[in-house]
Amino acid sequence: MSLIVQKYGGSSVADAESIKRVAKRIVETRKAGNEVVVAVSAMGDSTDELLDLAHQVTPIPAPRELDMLLTAGERISMALLAMSIRSMGHDARSFTGSQAGMITDARHGQARIVDVTPGRVRDALDEGAIAIVAGFQGFNRGTGDITTLGRGGSDTTAVALAAALGADVCEIYTDVDGIYTADPRLVPRARKITRISSEEMLELAANGAKVLYIRAVEYARRHGVTLHVRSSFNNNEGTIVYNAPEQSAPAPESAPAPESAPAPESAPAPESAPAPDTAPAPETARENSETPVEEPLIAGVATDLSEAKITVVGVPDIPGKAAQIFNIVAKTGANIDMIVQNVSAASTGLTDISFTLPKSDGQTVLTALTAEQGDVGFKALQYDDQIGKLALVGAGMRTNAGVSAKLFTALYEAGINIEMISTSEIRISVVTRADTVNDALRVVHAAFGLDSDDEAIVHGGTGR
């Protein structure tokens, strides 16, 4: 008997009928001879509605109480889903994050997993039940408080459970048929990818692809979990995210199943129940986890409009100044993405340093740098939140020349200016104006021959 972990997002369980359809799919997976654990999100947009309600009663909700409020959404959906499954004649038991053993640190709103002890979930499976676990939430042993994992926390819950339970595959259900070479809402002729390495998926997720969240992908990579991204509206095979041999051995930082990465909910519901043989057997998952004979040149293109750029103008070009600047930024907790330092002006001995970061951290970092301006000695700060980032990702870049030239030529011919450039072994990222980034996406997608003959089908509206 194989063990399958499934994750269903808010659009999958948006209403009673959707919950019934998801329950039917879960039951069919169980009838096929599999043990089944399900991580579920709050219904529809209920998390956003609860957030709005909190901000109506106070402009700055207390973090502890906000977590208590937000976790109510997943408790509702998990209980309703378990009821629906039981009405079909199958035993199902719902568990909160704390009951399922999702142990986290004490940080409210963005807690990180430090241990997973799913004893009650394992007991339920041993007794023939389907286990339904509330995603997005955990528990801190030190404070005794409920915590939440941040956006995409249900994806991370599912992967963490799959790792701790030794699942054969972790299925992430969404409203598209798998992972595409670009967001099919922006590039209608984006091509579905059959298999993609976790390394490439990490780069795409880190650069704006929303079908999977980076924390979940990183957890899966570190703990050898095979991901299967599928649509909950049909029985198509979707996309396998496989671990290359050198990546497949888990490398926990601490405790049995710790989380390890920065921050990503997904999926609607099937129109009809899948045939019992649609659930992937462990043999299929293992076969799909093998590395292809040769990696494709380009796996996909992603865009991100959530970042801003800060330029520190007139920095003395002497050793230690960059360290001062980024130590100040580090104390704010902001995550820096791209960094560019200009060549020093010979006449002044001054340089400019630009970096990108999440817009949500922009004001905090500006305030911190302004407070230390006298010590650092820079002249001014510039803030720009009208930028967009485009990233071209592909493991084949390691062994193929001319990728940069083709990318920059495509952007030049489209009249799109590049403001910053960053690279890794398998990624090239560029910053452009926010109002040109979608045009850049379509131009680059076509330039690298990624367009499909047919338009992609998007069953829902958000990609989650």
UniProtKB/TrEMBL annotation:
Keywords: Amino-acid biosynthesis, ATP-binding, Diaminopimelate biosynthesis, Kinase, Lysine biosynthesis, Nucleotide-binding, Transferase. ATP binds at K7, Y8, G9, G10, T174, D175, Y180, R185, K210, V211. InterPro entries: AceGlu_kinase-like_sf, ACT-like_dom_sf, ACT_Aspartokinase, ACT_dom, AKii-LysC-BS, Asp/Glu/Uridylate_kinase, Asp_kin_monofn, Asp_kinase. It comes from the Bacteria. One of its GO terms (biological process) is lysine biosynthetic process via diaminopimelate. GO terms for cellular component: cytosol. It catalyses: L-aspartate + ATP = 4-phospho-L-aspartate + ADP. The keyword ATP-binding applies. Its EC number is 2.7.2.4. It is an enzyme of class 2 (transferase). Pathway: Amino-acid biosynthesis; L-threonine biosynthesis; L-threonine from L-aspartate: step 1/5; Amino-acid biosynthesis; L-lysine biosynthesis via DAP pathway; (S)-tetrahydrodipicolinate from L-aspartate: step 1/4; Amino-acid biosynthesis; L-methionine biosynthesis via de novo pathway; L-homoserine from L-aspartate: step 1/3. Catalyzes the phosphorylation of the beta-carboxyl group of aspartic acid with ATP to yield 4-phospho-L-aspartate, which is involved in the branched biosynthetic pathway leading to the biosynthesis of amino acids lysine, threonine, isoleucine and methionine. This is Aspartokinase. It comes from Subtercola boreus. The lineage of its organism: Bacteria, Bacillati, Actinomycetota, Actinomycetes, Micrococcales.
